Amino acid sequence: MAALSELLKEISYECVRGVPEREITDVIYDSRQVKKDCLFVCIPGAKVDGHRYAAEAVNAGAAALLVEHEVELPEDCDVTVIRVEDVRLALAFVSAAFFGHPARQMKIIGITGTKGKTTTTYLVKSILEQAGRKVGLIGTIEIIIGETHIHAENTTPQSYLVQKYFRMMADAGCDTVVMEVSSQGLMLHRTQGFVFDFGIFTNLEPDHIGENEHRDFDDYLHCKSLLFRQCRVGIVNADDRHWREVTRNCTCQLETYGIDTDADLRAQDIVFLNEGGSLGMRFTAKGLTELPVQIAFPGKFNVYNALTAIAICRHFGVDGKEIQRALASAKVKGRTEMVRVSDDFTLMIDYAHNAMALKSLLETLRAYDPHRLVCLFGCGGNRAKSRRYEMGEVSGRMADLTIITSDNPRTEEPQAIIDDIRTGIAKTDGKYVEICDRKEAIAYAIDHGEPGDIIVLAGKGHEDYQEINGVKYPMDERVLIQEILEERA
Q1: What's the burial of 20, exposed, middle or buried (CB within 10 Å: 0-12/13-18/19+)?
Q2: What CATH code is carried by the domain that includes residue 224?
Q3: I need a surface site. Which of 222, 257, 381, 482 has the fewest CB within 10 A?
Q4: Is residue 48 located within the same domain as residue 183?
Q5: Residue 65, strand partner residues
């Protein structure tokens, strides 16, 4: 229970009906979840406006409503109506108050950028836990609270859930939280109601632009920049050409890291490692910290991720040897994740599921001079056909062999999606085979692996399901690989 008047203390509002002096049992923004004496928050969504359900919420027992405009209500109902300028912004502050401002009990690290968020959050968690801290994580793959792992629906959850997870983390003894902060999360005020101790910018490329996302690149950039008006220390990639724009109106202390610029923290003497079917990188950190580092992730972009993690963790006084140990052993599910099946060739799983990500991944793997670069992928159903053409063309041009298979066909015919991918490959001279069943396709890749090959299973990454006609069936590529190896044995 909480006093409504207390929940409203940090926001500007007008009480247009009833009184704010009443007890609230919960804060609810889904009309199907309304409970007696709750505060129902009328969120105007892209497809559904919560204001339409105000009367329904009152009839179900809501004691108060948080609104942006007038709503129709049952006659003679006993309900308090609080009007604000922006319901989503108000929800963030109300939620923080409802859960007792848990962020104030912990150090909060927020990482934004087009690429690198997921890997960097896990690297930071690994390093800080090596140093004895207890770290909660909120990200694209999952929410981690101690031994509890919760499946993530969004990269950055609704503000109420962010605060709920913060409270669970604080109660579980966490002293630090590392979280991915998406541009959508910033745009929709999901990370308001508290201040980040550290805000990190990795990089910026055109992405998430279109209906129900960002209207153009300028809007995308602007939303990323909001993090640096909501953090105490900003840590940014000075090699990214957008970093000055992203931090133009920042209110935080700034630090930089990079490889190609004279940043505060730099990576030098970079070496690509290919040892017994495992790929990695070695480099020396210079500047704010001086440290030789080795990571079990391939490519220059993972040097950036490791450098970002070092830039953050040095603020926590972590010993150099602890950083080295943590980075050497860290793994991230579905992000250039190597699965050992042979000493002769490399097999990895990666989430690359659009042309830009696939191109970046294949360019990275080319730097290891493989005997053959083999790319296995499919595309999701009920999505733009252009993605299929583009990914097919990228793989056809950059891979020595493409294995076209199924991803999440959803309500489309898998073969129709494969046909579209083949249209893209047809623009190239690339060799390809079609194997619709994903397990059979992976088995083909393993059975036909040649010494020195790098084989990448792209598109699924951390996902452990395949969606067909509205049903999510269990399908984890790690499990499929293990089954294939057992069958061969």
Answers
A1: middle
A2: 3.40.1190.10
A3: 482
A4: no
A5: 40, 81
- pLDDT by position in tens, the chain (length 489): 899 999 999 999 999 999 999 999 999 999 999 999 999 999 998 788 999 999 999 999 999 999 999 999 998 899 999 999 999 999 999 999 999 999 999 999 999 998 899 999 999 999 999 999 999 999 999 999 999 999 999 899 999 999 999 999 999 999 999 999 998 899 999 999 999 999 999 998 855 444 556 566 788 888 899 999 999 999 999 999 999 999 999 999 999 999 999 999 999 999 999 987 889 999 999 999 999 999 999 999 999 999 999 999 999 999 999 999 999 999 899 999 999 999 999 999 999 999 989 999 999 999 999 999 999 999 999 998 999 999 999 999 999 999 999 999 999 999 999 999 999 999 999 999 999 999 999 999 999 999 999 999 999 999 999 999 989 999 999 999 999 999 988
User: Cα-flanking dihedrals φ and ψ of residue 266, to 5°?
Assistant: -130, 155
Q: Are residues 362 and 435 in the same domain?
A: yes
* Single pTM value for the model: 0.91
Please report whether residue 405 resides in a domain: yes
User: Of 57, 88, 119, which residue constitutes the final position of a domain?
Assistant: 88
Q: How many domains does the chain have?
A: 3
Q: Last residue of a domain, which of 288, 312, 329?
A: 329
The answer to whether residues 357 and 315 belong to one domain is: no
Strands 2-3 and 23-24: antiparallel
One-letter amino acid of 33: Q
Tokens matching residue 130: 């090596």
- The C-alpha atoms of residue 125 and residue 137 are separated, in whole angstroms, by 8
The pair of structure tokens assigned to 358 is: 């696939």
Is 409 within a domain?
A: yes
Is 299 in the same domain as 374?
Answer: no
The token pair at 149 is 């792992």
Is residue 97 in a domain? Answer: no
On whether both 71 and 215 belong to a single domain, the answer is: no
Report angle CA 269, 272, 276 to the nearest 5 degrees.
Answer: 140
